[in-house]
Amino acid sequence: MIALGSIALIVSKVRAGSIETKLDRNDTHTRALLNEYLFADIDTDDVNTHRAEFIRRLQPYLVQLENGLEIVNVSRNNPRKRSLKRVMLQLTTEVIGETLVRLTHAFHYFGFVDETNKSLQDDRWWIRAKGSKNAGLMMNESSLPYLEKCLDDQNDDVRTEAAQAMLDIAGVEILGPILMRLKEMTPWMQVRLSRSILAFGENSVPHLVTAMQSKYPKIQGFSVEMLGILGDIKATPTLLEYIDYSVRDVKHKSLIALGRIGDERSIPVIQRFLFSEDEQLRVDAAKAAGNLSTPSMAYDLYWMLVKDTLKVKFAAAEALARSGKLGIKSLTYAVTLDDAEVRMIAMQFLHEAGLPVDTSTIDEDNV
Amino acid sequence: MMELFIEFTNLVLNTYALFIIGFFVFVNVFYFSMYAISFGAIITYLRRHEFCDYRVIMQSELAPPVSILAPAFNESATCVESVISLLKLNYPTAEVLFINDGSRDNTLEIMIIEFDLIKTERAYIPAIATKEVRGIYVSRKTEYRNLIVVDKVNGGKADALNVGINVSRYPLVCAIDADSILESDALLKVAKPFLDDDRVIAVGGIVRIANGCKIERGHVLDVRLSKKLIPSFQVIEYYRAYLSGRMGWGAINGLLIISGAFGLFSREIVLKVGGYKHNTVGEDMELIVRMHRYCLENNIPYSVEFVPDPVCWTEAPETLKILGRQRNRWHRGLLDTLLIHKKMLFNKRYKVLGLVSVPYFVFIELLGPVIEAIGYVAVGLGFYFGMVNAEIFTLFFVVSVIYGVMFSISSVILEEISFHRYPRTQDLLKLLVLAVVENFGYRQITVWWRIKAFWDYARGVQSWGVMTRVGFKRK
User: Fold this and answer.
1) Nearest-by-CA chain B residue for A230
2) Mean pLDDT for chain B?
3) Where are the domains of chain B?
4) If you average pLDDT over residues A21-34, what whole number do you get?
5) Which of residues 345 through 364 in chain A touch B, CB cutoff 8 A?
6) Superfamily name with CATH number, domain B1-475
7) Residues of B in Cβ contact (< 8 Å) with A287
8) pLDDT (tens digit, 9 = 90+) per residue, B355-396?
9) Could you report the per-residue pLDDT of A57-70, keeping only the tens digit for each?
10) Whole-complex ipTM
11) pLDDT per position as a tens digit, A336-360
12) What is the pLDDT of residues B166-212, one digit of tens each?
């Protein structure tokens, strides 16, 4: 058994190279034939207005491709058909415009869309996830109802791939419905979706604002975080309205978002949170105050630096370093205090801000 | 009188023989169960891997920032290469904290010159008590803006790591050995479980042996098996430990060890448990056990994961003398950790840990070498007194070797079907031959080192032993 296992291992290792070469050769041949179809000179005025006519004209080229690859009436597991699917999926990220329309139609013509839609209902999670991923690449709207069902899937990867595919197919308009449908989001899903949301830019703001009404804190939190990253001041009123009614984690993200947006309308709310009983929220409020770079909170931040917990002291000192002349003066004054901890922290942030520590300039009454 | 003695010896040897057979069956059933779990976990990992594009994490603002802690003591031979490798890691937001633990060589001077460092006024406020910090340095060069070098009074690796945790600013801390080299995507891969599940508190990555590989400027350019026998034996051991062992333990949330050479932790939980313990040589294992305990005792949902893919390359000992010191230290660390947390043994409050992991580590990992050594002595005595049936002994010996070889080859197979990092067929052939050869001599030497560790522990030996490194650069 050991000998057999070892021999099998060595043989597979030796064969691995030649199998890879064969696959590459197959794919090169497929790509050449596919290019003839994708770049065939077809007379069309406008793909969007005469789509049916355009598709009709594609037909002979598809038949030619099918014959060239000798895949008429072969099973979907035929190596040449698998090669075609692999090459087409690779191309989806490389082509745009009319060529992409040709490619999308080819997916439909060769039955890959139906195959994918079927795989979205498979019992095995990895098949559903792969199906979702492929559906997104194939950009076929007929997959949307199946993908929507996948948003409730038990498996995190299936949900993530399905949501991403829906965004790829239907664009920003479907962002709100996706977020309102989801009950749970892993940080990985957030990372994935954030990429599309950033690409949509300010168009996604109304959808994210809608998603703040979700009853699930994870979805609310993600929407708030993305609004902060997008930094659109249109989001400020909603963020201010919801902050008091949210759970702690959403409050925490809202404060960071308000800081990032930097809208002066949020100053009173941020100032209020500087006195929160929750240490983390005080840290967040201090960070938000720092991002706003306003001297109006320097006094409160100074006292946080002097009196608060270590974690808050650091956040307050960092915020002071970014709060203009008054903030810098407060930090410089803190360097003269007896409390070694406060002194060290103040020195650090003055140093990091590239400022020399010159305590002779301190006007104590002013501070 | 002599007859009575022989009868008594016979009884003892027979009882021990039965015990050995039972132990042998139990151990092998356990190993193969763990192998089956590891196999399933690797397949799941590979399936999930298909849906992960690490470039997405690389470009994301939502990826949790990481502080990389590299403690160093007399690492002048490798420190620059290692730090360059760490600074080049692909990760959106990361800082590298190089902690010079009072090196007696010119490690700090080399770092200051090579990275153009200046002393900074950064506040050092120890959340975990540590030895005195002499200075915190940053680089004047913008390309090294994420590098912070901390110079401290010598206090051991645990103390250096605790200083790093105190200085770090990010929610995840990655502990590595300063003489290790991480692959460029290693951090992205090891951070992924933190993105998959909010409950993850620690993730361990696979450590591979760099001896024999071609390395330049902190990058592994060509993966090869060492021409020397001792590092090559360790490749098989690492396969067994990581792919067939830790992968399975991770899958059942019973992982007790995350290698000190490469692990990523939640800073918050590490701070809550008080950081690394100073007076143990197994500080990496002890921390993980304490983190498990903390979460279980406070009913915090958590998981400790192992990822088989992110690669950390380390220089393995090339001589028996140095390898012996390392294995002795590892075994003392294991013994110490298990004694500190003896309360967990068969304690159902600690779930998988108390009922499976800790008993496994006590009876198989810790006491296994003792049982094996007694077995060798008993066989010797048995032959001397003519009490051993040569046929049965031969059968048992052959079966036990075959099981050992099977287990080693299974680990090699696991590597080949998953990551196959050694591209050459001759390296694979060599590994398969070594899987057989290691049973004759090498295995017995490692048993002796581990037994000696009990004696050293009883004598209160706390030293790490000098680990002479050749250094990657000189290869």
Assistant:
1) B61
2) 90
3) 1-475
4) 83
5) 345, 347-348, 350-352
6) Spore Coat Polysaccharide Biosynthesis Protein SpsA; Chain A (3.90.550.10)
7) none
8) 999 999 999 999 999 998 988 888 888 888 787 788 888 888
9) 888 889 988 888 88
10) 0.88
11) 998 988 998 998 898 888 776 655 5
12) 999 999 999 988 677 888 899 999 999 999 999 999 999 999 999 99
pLDDT at A363 over 70: no
A135 contacts A143 by C-beta, under 8 angstroms: yes
3-state secondary structure labels for all residues of chain B? CHHHHHHHHHHHHHHHHHHHHHHHHHHHHHHHHHHHHHHHHHHHHHHHHCCCCHHHHHCCCCCCCEEEEEEECCCCCCHHHHHHHHHCCCCCCEEEEEEEECCCCCHHHHHHHHHCEEEECCCCCCCCCCCCEEEEEEECCHHHCCEEEEEECCCCHHHHHHHHHHHCCCCEEEEECCCCEECCCHHHHHHHHHHHCCCEEEEEEEEEECCCCEEECCEEEECCCCCCHHHHHHHHHHHHHHHHHHHHHHHCCCCCCCCCCEEEEEHHHHHHCCCCCCCCCCHHHHHHHHHHHHHHHCCCCCEEEEEEEEEEEECCCCCHHHHHHHHHHHHHHHHHHHHHCHHHCCCHHHHHHHHHHHHHHHHHHHCHHHHHHHHHHHHHHHHHCCCCCHHHHHHHHHHHHHHHHHHHHHHHHHHHHHCCCCCCHHHHHHHHHHHHHCCCCHHHHHHHHHHHHHHHHHCCCCCCCCCCCCCCCCC
Own/partner pairs, B27-31, CB within 8 angstroms, 24+ separation:
B27/B364, B27/B368, B28/B403, B28/B407, B30/B360, B30/B364, B31/B244, B31/B407
Please write the tens of the pLDDT for every residue from A156-167.
999 999 999 999
Give chain A positions within 8 Å (CB) of B236.
none
Q: Are B138 and B117 in contact (CB under 8 A)?
A: yes
| Chain A closest-CA separation from residue B464 CA (Å) | 35
Average pLDDT over chain A reads 89
**Span B15-58, pLDDT tens digits:** 888 888 888 899 999 999 999 999 999 999 999 999 999 999 99
In the structure encoding, which two tokens stand for residue B440, read together?
Answer: 């004759």
* Partner-chain residue, chosen from A1, A6, A14, that has the shortest CB–CB distance to B432: A6
Q: Does A192 touch chain B (CB under 8 A)?
A: yes
Predicted TM-score of the model (pTM): 0.90
The predicted structure's pLDDT at residue B474: 43
